[in-house]
Amino acid sequence: MFKSKKLVALGLAAVALFSTVGVSLAYWASSVSGASKDVTGTINVGTGDAVTTQVNVSNVTEGKQLVPAGYADETDEIESVTLTFSVSWNDADGDSDGAVGTLAVTRGSYTVGGVADTYSLVNISADPSDVSITAGAAAFDVTYTVTLDEPANLAQYNAVAGKAIVINFSFEVTVA
């Protein structure tokens, strides 16, 4: 009888240990640090309405999946994507050359797998946001970096794992 109580106690201890280990494991399955991906696009703002564009992050990662920092392996996963837009202000006739305006770059809405990011796991940071721009001058770069936070549970993991991140951007020049 004493031996069976010991076995039951050991069994309960083992169950408690395995359930604790199972709960504490991260929802992202890899653990080797990896690299980032840089992509450059060209935006030519004319004299009129705002220029809008939509970027599917999956289309610029060359088949690699975006994963949270610390979880990328060396072959098919990356921890960040840098989107660089080369922006210039031009008109067809060159009549605006030399004019100075303000370029407003706005990151619009984004989706993950076609739906809103309800868990706010996608991070999109920008540099710069509003800058001075001269018509006819050389292009300059506007950069956005996209990263993921680690999901806290299985529902959050399923909401982002392997899903396409699509981000809307708007570029507009105003002259005071």
Write the layout of secondary structure elements.
Elements lengths: L1 H23 L11 E10 L5 E6 L8 E2 L10 E2 L1 E10 L10 E13 L9 E6 L2 E5 L5 E9 L5 H7 L4 E10 L2
Parallel strand pairs: 1-5, 3-4
Antiparallel strand pairs: 2-10, 5-9, 6-8, 6-10, 7-9
Task: Give a quick rundown of the structure.
By secondary structure, this protein is of the alpha+beta class. The chain has helices spanning 2-24, 154-160; strands at 36-45, 51-56, 65-66, 77-78, 80-89, 100-112, 122-127, 130-134, 140-148, 165-174.
Report on the structure:
- There is one protein chain.
- The protein has helices at residues 2-24, 154-160, and strands at 36-45, 51-56, 65-66, 77-78, 80-89, 100-112, 122-127, 130-134, 140-148, 165-174.
- It has one domain (27-174).
- It has 176 residues and is an alpha+beta fold.
